Amino acid sequence: MSETAERQATSERPGGPAHAKPGKAALSEGKKAERRLALMLCAPAAIVMLAVTGYPIAYSIWLSLQRYDLRFPDERQFVGLDNYVAVLSNSYWWTAFGTTMFLTVVSVAIELVLGMALALAMHRTLVGRGLVRTVTLVPYGIVTVVAAFSWYYAWTPDVGYLANIFAGEGAPLTDRWPSLMIIVLAEVWKTTPFMALLLLAGLALVPDDLLKAAAMDGANAWQRFTKVMIPVMKPAILVALLFRTLDAFRIFDNIFVLTGGSNDTSSVSMQTYNNLIKGLNLGIGSTMAVLIFITVAIIAVIFVKLFGAAAPGSDQGGKR
Amino acid sequence: MVMGTVTTARKTRWALLDIVIVVYALIPVLWIASLSFKTKDTLADGNFIPREWTLQNYADIFATNEFIRPLINSIGIATIATVIAVGLGMMAAYAIARLDFPGKRALVGVSLLIAMFPQISLVTPLFNIERELGLFDTWPGLILPYITFALPLGIYVLSAFFREIPWELEKAAKMDGATPAQAFRRVIAPLAAPGVFTTAILVFIFCWNDFLFAISLTSTEAARTVPAALSFFTGTSQFEDPTGTIAAAAVVITIPIVLFVLFFQRRIVAGLTSGAVKG
To answer: How near does any CA of chain A get to the CA of B101, in Å?
Structure first.
């Protein structure tokens, strides 16, 4: 907030009180020029973003109200909400929805705990801090598909070291629950470092004095963590949770490589993709796209409502 | 920090924990690398370390268009998208960090929304739009969505970096008679270079990693990138097990990422966490 005030102060300074009369006119001239420059600078980015997201999402709402199958283009017609009825009364959709929710909740929960531990380790380690930070960036940076293939082969019977140790004679990627666990593993491995880095940034804001004072007053390590660190870190935790939850809900790459969506391990993104590429059904595919969009919006709204002023939307809106 | 004297025991405990973290982070990478060096006969032995080493898998992938063409696509598409996204992002971030104008909050809000946008929601409409415009299965057909999803990240990170720049220099330039645009080009842009570079790395990683758009909006090797091509690999001949070649290709596209991480660790961490907490 103080930043905004400061910014205003700086922008007013050129007009300064020294030459009051001509200064005023020059100020509004300058303001206009500033606005024009700002709009010119922002326009290209804004136009690209709106053209590639705004228009297609509107178009996909329009498509979702039609029967439109590329295999039978002649039968294209307006059908109102029929597609929505078709999707929402379909058990495959709800299985995929449940799977997606399960994967999202479980992996984000594990990531939060592991990420916090990793952040604390990176923050406090006495040796090799640079090494640890460098190494944790590897999972973040690596191509998801590459990591997914690594897990896939690791769990393939005979070929993989993990399958040979843990799975005995079975093939874990051919059963639903083992598959889901492996998908969670792949997801957690890949994104925990990102979570940890966001939390680490929050951790850096915790004042050492506060921790020392708490220790003096007899707080043990766990109390210092829950009563001092967590409250200070709350905004960082919320940002990390929101980002990761919405990101996890889009899960696609890992499932595509690990199971291809077989044995009811398909996510909503997988279902939509299959409908488009294998089914070439634009009407149904668009309906799913709109439903996913709505779900993500609801999740975001819940986050903002639950956490009020601390939520990233309001927070960053104020600061940017 | 609340800690007593630093003892050797303490250091050892931290070192052990560090080793656990290093192992955690590197095992899947080492495993895929190990697979890529295994000979065809030992591929299915389940050993973590190859018993017989070979470079045959690498020779195989670089002998076919099946890999070279997607590699060129990946490099070209990611580079072009990065340059454009960072260019546009720089302009917008400068305005956001520096100028006062109506609609700033709306712009930030929209880009935040796009950052969280479910990409699959765009795949179906974009598929049809691109088909009709003739962009399907072309470089621009992938570059456009990449720019769009890279822009929020770029604007986000860049505006955080731009706020750290000593703006008195800009004022000095203006006093010397430079227009705001000149001040941007001559004074601020060079100062902002490290931030811009960091952003470029993050954006490049994003484009390099994308899979969903890459398999949905392409159908041939004309624009298919490596992550997408990997899932279509068949090996040198139709009936061969592609494990070794997939592993080799996977290692090749992992190398640039590992190099970025090794050389620019500090910057990448700063970029990823800028904006996340303090803004």
So the answer is: 5
**In chain A, beta strands by DSSP E:** 66-67, 77-78
Per-residue model confidence as pLDDT tens digits over B137-184: 999 999 999 999 999 889 988 888 888 888 788 788 888 888 888 887
Same domain, B36 and B68: no
- Which of A50, A201, A243 has the CB atom closest to B273's CB atom? A201
Q: Of the candidates A197, A200, A202, A211, which has an alpha carbon nearest to the alpha carbon of residue A232?
A: A202
Residue A38 CA to residue A189 CA, distance in Å, equals 41
pLDDT confidence band for B234 (50 / 70 / 90): low
Helix axes B120-133, A268-277, angle to 10 degrees: 20
pLDDT tens digits along B195-218: 888 899 999 999 999 999 999 999
Q: Do residues B146 and B208 make contact, with C-beta atoms less than 8 angstroms apart?
A: no
Give me the total of CB pairs closer than 8 Å, taking one residue from chain A and one from chain B.
334
Domain count, chain A: 2
In order of A107, A126, B47, B268, the CA distances from A117 in angstroms are: 15, 15, 31, 20
β-bridge partners, A78 = A66
Query: Residue A71 domain-assigned?
Result: no
A55 lies in the same domain as A92 = no
Query: In this structure, what CATH number is given to the domain that contains residue A94?
Result: 1.10.3720.10
ipTM, two decimals, is 0.88
Which residue among B144, B148, B279 places its CB closest to the CB of A319? B279
Q: What is the four-CA torsion angle of B194, B199, B201, B207, rounded to 10 degrees?
A: -160
Q: How far apart are CA B96 and CA A302, in angstroms?
A: 28
> Which structural domain range is residue A51 located in?
2-64
Q: Judge whether B52 lies within some domain.
A: no
* CATH number of the CATH domain containing B143: 1.10.3720.10
Residue A70 is assigned to a structural domain of this protein = no
- How many structural domains comprise chain B? 2
* Min Cα separation A100/chain B (Å): 13
B111 contacts in chain A (CB < 8 Å): 45, 49
Please say whether the dihedral angle defined by the alpha carbons of residues B7, B13, B16 and B20, taken in this order, is positive or negative. Answer: negative
Q: Which of B6, B99, B107, B131 to mutate to test the interface with A (most CBs of A within 10 A)?
A: B99
Same domain for A271 and A138? yes
Range with the poorest average pLDDT among A72-81, A91-100, B207-216, B219-228 = A72-81
Same domain, B34 and B125: no
Residues A46 and A158 in one domain: no
Is residue A310 within 8 Å of residue A235, measured between CB atoms? Answer: yes
Question: Which residue range(s) make up the domain with B164?
Answer: 61-273
Mutation to test the A interface, candidates B80, B116, B164, most A Cβ within 10 Å: B116
